[in-house]
Amino acid sequence: MENYDIPPVQVALDLLDLPRAIEIAKEAVLGGVTWIEAGTPLIKSEGMNAIRKLRENFPNLTIVADMKTMDAGSTEVEMAAKAGADVILILGVGPDSMIKEAVLAGKKYGVLVGTDLIATYDPVERAYELEKLGVDIINIHVGLDQQVLNIDPVELVKKVSERCKHAKIAAAGGLNSETAVKAYEAGADIIIVGGPLYKSESPEKTARDIITSLKTGKPISTSKFKKFNEKELLDAFKIVSTSNISDAMHRTGEMRGLKPVVDFKKPLKFAGPAVTVRTYAGDWSKPVSAIDVCSAGDVLVIDNCGSEISCWGGLATLSCKTKGIVAVIVDGAVRDVEEILKIGIPVFSKSITPTAGEPKGFGEINSAILCAGRTVEPGDWIIGDENGIIVVPKKDAMEIANRAIDVKEREDRVKEEINRGNTLGKVIRLKDWELKK
């Protein structure tokens, strides 16, 4: 499978700021990218000026306008074509009348019209219908809000390419140096790469790796820009900070009022599913019994009603180390700090006291609890670090993990631009994006 006549690689610039988009595009072009896409966020932010500036900066390359048009197909194709686009993408879920008008306008202005299959009910059948309507490109697109659910576009590429014989097939949806060649082998004529390029510290190197994989037919392994499935959640949560997760959850999920009993000279990072305990006023029977319910890798979360009588201490913590429990959270008091520090398991509590309660046996194990202001159900993911503790509901864990990784990857790109001599305010054009009323 050597010496592929490779498909064009298209960088999707799904950013808000045009200067950053142009700089990233320049780096990607050095790596071999030949199609430059003004992503929908960029078009909404900068308008047709984004197309004009891309044409000005890349006069000999293919400029794509991802308009996501649903209405006024002819008008929007004309607008983008006159601004300098060679390819205009509209929505395949739009009415046939709009698509016909867009196709006619494309012929009139000498541009290609592509349709995005995102959100179509039956994408394979709709692709066939779109081909009959005369579109030039069918874009199989797993959007950002679907990628976090670990949806892969490759299988759909294969089905659509088998059904459609005339239109070009484009593939988009988190493709990288490991997956791009799979999309090509499945039938993609155009490889669209978004985040792995515009979030990369080196878009040039990332683009070169993708193109090399296409030329050789061999995926190039990468540890970045990957999506994680349900079985990989621990690995995913180890990559990100609680700050990343908070951003991904729209600034929610934090346990409040807890203080760590840890040695900050050692790294503080843990993640694991919750085993929950409800107990009362220093009653340590259920918290200790819950240790035997836990499996290695679990986090023990105890609702002690904020009591200032300890329900937890050194012997219980040592038992957790024996079981492989990775952290203990107590909405209440703990004692034996010197022992806990020697044992080394992260313990968080509301307060510290020398006074212990009695093992009366009140409460429940593995029921829904309220701990430090946050509802926790058995199996919810608990992630902690130096910034605090976040609770991620188990039903949303895969999505939140992947969204948090996206937050981190975007921040890593900003860090790279700051390291090159810029400042945060300038990189993100802060004044342009301050709330205006």
TrEMBL record:
SUPFAM superfamilies: Ribulose-phoshate binding barrel, RraA-like. SMART domains: OMPdecase. One of its GO terms (molecular function) is 3-dehydro-L-gulonate-6-phosphate decarboxylase activity. One of its GO terms (biological process) is L-ascorbic acid catabolic process. It comes from the Archaea. It catalyses: D-ribulose 5-phosphate + formaldehyde = D-arabino-hex-3-ulose 6-phosphate. Keywords: Carbohydrate metabolism, Lyase. Its EC number is 4.1.2.43. It holds the Pfam family RraA-like. Gene3D superfamilies: Aldolase class I (3.20.20.70), Ribonuclease E inhibitor RraA/RraA-like (3.50.30.40). InterPro entries: 3-hexulose-6-phosphate_synth, Aldolase_TIM, Bifunct_HPS/DMK_prd, HPS/KGPDC, OMPdeCOase_dom, RibuloseP-bd_barrel, RraA/RraA-like, RraA/RraA-like_sf. Residues 8-210 form the Orotidine 5'-phosphate decarboxylase domain. Belongs to the HPS/KGPDC family. HPS subfamily. PANTHER family: 3-KETO-L-GULONATE-6-PHOSPHATE DECARBOXYLASE SGBH-RELATED. This is 3-hexulose-6-phosphate synthase.
